[in-house]
Amino acid sequence: MFDNLSDKLDKAFHILKGHGKITEVNVAETLKEVRRALLDADVNFKIAKDFTTKVKEKAIGQDVLTTLQPGQLLVKLVKDELTELMGGEVAGINLSGNPTVILMAGLQGSGKTTFSGKLANYLLTKKNKKPLLVACDIYRPAAIQQLYVVGDSIGVEVYSEPENKNPVEIAQNAIKHAKANGFNVVIVDTAGRLAVDAEMMDEIERVHKAIQPQETLFVVDAMTGQDAVNTAKTFNERLNFDGVILTKLDGDTRGGAAISIKSVVNKPIKFVGTGEKMDAIDVFYPIRMAERILG
Ligand code: GDP
């Protein structure tokens, strides 16, 4: 994961490790390399610039050059800042509703259906919940079918109304069904499009308003880099979502989305998807991710 970024950061810190006496110039060069590494990882320019400015201020504030191991201290400052950038604390999921309603939003292909299954499986096996999966895609029968395959594989019931073309009604009926049958979490998988369009946004907004979910989760493919961040912005403006799910972190992603999405939308990454299987889900820990990036 993020091998390229890790390699480049490692090289950046070599500048410091190679010198007997470390000067201000060495530190400035290192931070320039750090910034370049972030930009190469598809982190937005302003975020990368602010990042190195903050680290530099801290380095000056802590008199890095006068410490015994300035290189190590600088690595620590970078790690702390990366952790902060990705959200600081781990963000939990709000399961307070009865039933808890979770709305999944995102583009087609982002991994919504797969993640709905993973989350249901996680809540069933790790949190002792009884989840219901809801198929709210009224355009693609194959999407409903896919959710049944997912539900079957983890032993979770799927609710659908293939004849009904009103996603608001389907979602509302599903919640009634859940209440009547003892389900305490309802995960609503919605229709996505290949790109942001007005109809999709209107539809998800209507569903959102009607069912008032405890958690609205925006699912995005980490491999799409800056596009992921821009799509997040658009969805957040319409839905004011509660958290981000970054999928396909097992793929060849450069890391930009993971690093910058929190500071752009000011919403935490809650989970990551790391594969196609139902157990390939991880709670997102900013500090662990920063440690991983810095190797
Ligand atoms: P949806 O259109 O948003 O519902 O997306 P899907 O759930 O159908 O996922 C699209 C494709 O991405 C499928 O082939 C999934 O198997 C794959 N996929 C989803 N999540 C992950 C992940 O975390 N890692 C990998 N490698 N593939 C994933």
TrEMBL record:
Domain SRP54-type proteins GTP-binding: 268-281
Record keywords, A-Z: Cytoplasm, GTP-binding, Hydrolase, Nucleotide-binding, Ribonucleoprotein, RNA-binding, Signal recognition particle
Superkingdom as given in the UniProt entry: Bacteria
Hydrolase in keyword set: yes
GO terms of biological process kind: SRP-dependent cotranslational protein targeting to membrane
E.C. code: 3.6.5.4
Keyword Repeat applies: no
Protein's cellular compartments: Cytoplasm
GO cellular-component term (any): signal recognition particle
Catalytic activity of the protein: GTP + H2O = GDP + phosphate + H(+)
Chief place of localization: cytoplasm
GO MF annotation terms: 7S RNA binding; GTP binding; GTPase activity
Residues involved in GTP binding: 106-113, 189-193, 247-250
Similarity comment text for this entry: Belongs to the GTP-binding SRP family. SRP54 subfamily.
Domain text: Composed of three domains: the N-terminal N domain, which is responsible for interactions with the ribosome, the central G domain, which binds GTP, and the C-terminal M domain, which binds the RNA and the signal sequence of the RNC.
Subunit note: Part of the signal recognition particle protein translocation system, which is composed of SRP and FtsY.
Function: Involved in targeting and insertion of nascent membrane proteins into the cytoplasmic membrane. Binds to the hydrophobic signal sequence of the ribosome-nascent chain (RNC) as it emerges from the ribosomes. The SRP-RNC complex is then targeted to the cytoplasmic membrane where it interacts with the SRP receptor FtsY.
Record-given protein name: Signal recognition particle protein
Organism listed in the record: Flavobacterium omnivorum
Gene: ffh
Residues of the full protein shown: 1 to 295 of 449
